[in-house]
Amino acid sequence: MTEAEITRLQTYLQKTFANKALTVQARKETNDSVEVHLNGEFIGVIYRDDDEGDVSYDFNMAILEMDLPAVA
Predict the structure, then answer these.
(1) What is the pLDDT of residue 72?
(2) 7 lies in a domain?
(3) Distance between CA atoms of 70 and 49, rounded to whole angstroms?
(4) CA–CA dist 17, 49 (Å, integer)
(5) Which of 14, 33, 40, 61 could cysteine-pair with 44, CB 3.0–4.6 Å?
(6) Residue 71 counted as domain residue
(7) Residue 37 domain flag
(8) What's the domain range around 34?
(9) What are the beta bridge partners of residue 56?
């Protein structure tokens, strides 16, 4: 992804979730996706999809069962 796309995605996420601690960073091994971090901790990946000129972005965030709070 371009630097402009990365900046636009970061601005969008920060505004949508009202959280300036969200950052978007390029990945070294590929240019079709970026990493999302919260307070410096990796939380997910955004993939870019270009389907015949229609561009969309897919945010994938894994949540481990062991990280969920216990139910009383």
Answers:
(1) 81
(2) yes
(3) 36
(4) 22
(5) 61
(6) no
(7) yes
(8) 3-64
(9) 49
Q: Are residues 46 and 36 in contact, defined by beta-carbon separation less than 8 angstroms?
A: yes
Helix H segments across 1-72? 3-16
56 Cβ partners below 8 Å, 6+ apart?
48, 49
Tens-level pLDDT at each residue, the chain (72 residues): 999 999 999 999 999 999 999 999 999 989 999 999 999 999 999 999 999 999 999 999 999 999 999 988
Which residues on adjacent β-strands are paired with residue 45? 35, 60
Q: Rounded to the nearest 10 degrees, how much is the dihedral formed by the CA atoms of 22, 28, 34, 39? A: -10
Count of domains observed in the chain = 1
- What distance in Å separates the CA atoms of residue 13 and residue 38, rounded to the nearest whole number? 11
What is the β-pairing status of strands 54-60 and 33-38? unpaired
Closest CA to 57 of 13, 20, 14, 22: 13
